[in-house]
Write a structure and sequence with these properties.
Layout: H1 3-6, H2 14-22, H3 29-38, H4 40-51, H5 76-83, H6 91-103, H7 106-119, H8 139-149, H9 157-167, H10 173-186, H11 200-215, H12 217-229, E1 246-252, E2 255-262, E3 265-272, E4 288-293, H13 296-308, H14 318-328, H15 333-342, H16 362-366, H17 372-381, H18 405-420, H19 429-437, H20 440-448, E5 456-457, E6 460-461, H21 462-468, H22 472-477
Antiparallel strand pairs: 1-2, 2-3, 3-4, 5-6
């Protein structure tokens, strides 16, 4: 079978497919998407034909034919990371990776794990960086990939968590997905959403510590010492959401010092008080964090000493907290959690004399940020109004599907939170953008949020626009029937 024949469909004749194959481009992704929309079996057959024409040793993601590939849960870069984890990778191995990650095929996952295990030294997670393995940024893909290989990191869940903390591996993405998987095994709902594009070390650190504490208080202490030592927290003790044995806060001459005890270990952090409230300082403040382990009795005495030291308990002005919340809501997931804990009120709109921004809320500003899904969930839980409008748009209307696989996952999750809280899709702009650009997952989320599928722009519905642009999978999400 020729590649052009394999990629033909109801929207693309063999001749049209041949023209695209001769000069592959990002637009060519529509070919495989159309085949996938019609038949999962034919999609895998088409991938097999395409992969047979790709050079796997050494593997390079910039090969022209790979521009035709468009996965839901990972990218060609993620595929490269996995393929690079074995010797002698070939088209059959790459297809197994796709079957395992995209379609959750246990047999294919087993074959992938066997190949990776043969390349690694079974001494724990510290062996894995040698093979340059890294899970995807997209949460479903990350969970499936880490699910295939996590047993290589240790025999028990405790060993897996500790080895992840010790290695600071994959900038935290492995740790985040590992912690999420272990939490799911125990039926625990983790305190934040996994979708995350940047700063994954802090996300991984928070989830590793949180899950470790639920497995064992002693394990949590061991894990947290490792995380502080490796600076997963970037010097920010406040990012950890744990049940501390005890904590003391003191404010002295504009400097806030936080002392926390976890078992036999005392953690101390300090920073200027203006790092919390009011307008953000021009210079980014770096916390100074230390960890000292002795025994629980000595640790308790150190907390007694901190409590008796000079200084006063910090008092936070709600208006200052709200100002900082609005300023940081689309860039600092950890600080948002802390501001809400200290009393910031997210249901308020921005207090401004500029008529253009009247009614603009923190939920509107959160839209599109890398942390937007998790921050949206936190804001809604703290009382933010999902139905509030700014210039006729709800927070849902401010989201877009652009930005790649991981960004669509963030948008999809954020819309799920907003929809559950009563938010509605009321403006057609993002629906028609999704139709034109082929943001199928985002389009489906808009439909669930009540988007008006009968709305017309220049006489056409969003579904008709999707078909006109040969975005078949998106057209199916918008109501088209094969």
């Amino acid at each position: 079978m020729t590649l052009a024949t394999a990629l033909s469909s109801s929207l693309f004749s063999p001749a049209e497919a041949a023209r695209v194959v001769e000069a592959p481009s990002l637009e060519g992704r529509k070919l495989l998407d159309a085949v996938r929309a019609e038949s999962e079996g034919r999609y895998l057959e088409a991938l097999a034909v395409l992969f047979a024409k790709v050079s796997w040793v050494p593997f390079r993601t910039e090969q022209p034919l790979l521009q035709l590939v468009n996965f839901d849960f990972f990218t060609t870069t993620d595929l490269s990371n996995i393929v690079g984890a074995v010797d002698g990778a070939d088209a059959a191995f790459a297809l197994d990776v796709v079957r395992a990650v995209e379609f959750d095929d246990p047999a294919a996952a087993g074959r992938v794990k066997d190949r990776i295990a043969n390349k690694t030294v079974p001494e724990g997670l510290t062996a894995l960086p040698r093979v340059r393995f890294s899970p995807p940024d997209e949460p479903t893909g990350a969970l499936r990939v880490v699910g295939m290989v996590r047993e290589l990191a240790g025999a028990t869940e405790e060993e897996q968590l500790l080895s992840a903390a010790q290695s600071a591996f994959c900038h935290g993405r492995y740790g985040a997905a590992l912690a999420e998987l272990i939490a799911r095994n125990h039926g625990w709902a983790v305190p934040e959403d996994l979708p995350r594009e940047n700063e994954t070390a802090r996300l991984g650190g928070r989830l590793l510590a949180w899950v470790a504490q639920r497995l064992s208080p002693t394990l949590a202490e061991e894990v947290l010492v490792q995380l502080v030592d490796k600076e997963w927290d970037r010097g920010d003790l406040e990012m950890y959401q744990l049940e501390w044995t005890r904590e003391v806060e003191k404010l002295v001459q504009g400097k806030l010092t936080i002392t926390r005890q976890l078992g036999a270990t005392v953690f101390k952090a300090s920073a200027p008080f203006d790092s919390y409230a009011g307008a953000p300082p021009k210079k980014v403040t770096k916390w100074k964090v230390s960890a000292r382990t002795s025994d629980s009795k000595k640790a308790g005495k150190e907390l007694d000493k901190a409590a008796a030291a000079e200084g006063e308990a910090p008092a936070f002005n709600p208006a200052d907290l709200n100002q900082r919340l609005y300023a940081r809501v689309n860039s600092e997931r950890e600080r948002v959690a802390e501001l809400l804990r200290r009393g910031a009120v997210p249901k308020l709109a921005l207090d401004t004399s500029d008529a253009f921004w009247a009614g603009h809320t923190v939920l509107h500003k959160t839209a599109g940020s890398p942390d937007g899904a998790d921050v949206t969930r936190r804001l809604l839980a703290a009382g933010a109004d999902a139905t509030a409008t700014w210039r006729g748009k709800t927070a849902i209307d401010c989201w877009s599907g652009r930005g790649g696989v991981a960004a669509q996952a963030v948008a999809e999750t954020a819309l799920a939170h907003l929809t559950a809280a009563g938010g509605k899709s009321t403006h057609p702009d993002n629906l028609f953008e999704a139709a034109r650009m082929g943001y199928g997952r985002f389009a489906a989320a808009l439909v669930r949020a009540g988007a008006d599928l009968s709305a017309r722009v220049e006489g056409k519905t969003a579904c008709e626009v999707a078909l006109e642009n040969k975005q078949l999978r998106t057209a199916l999400a918008l109501g088209h029937r094969l």
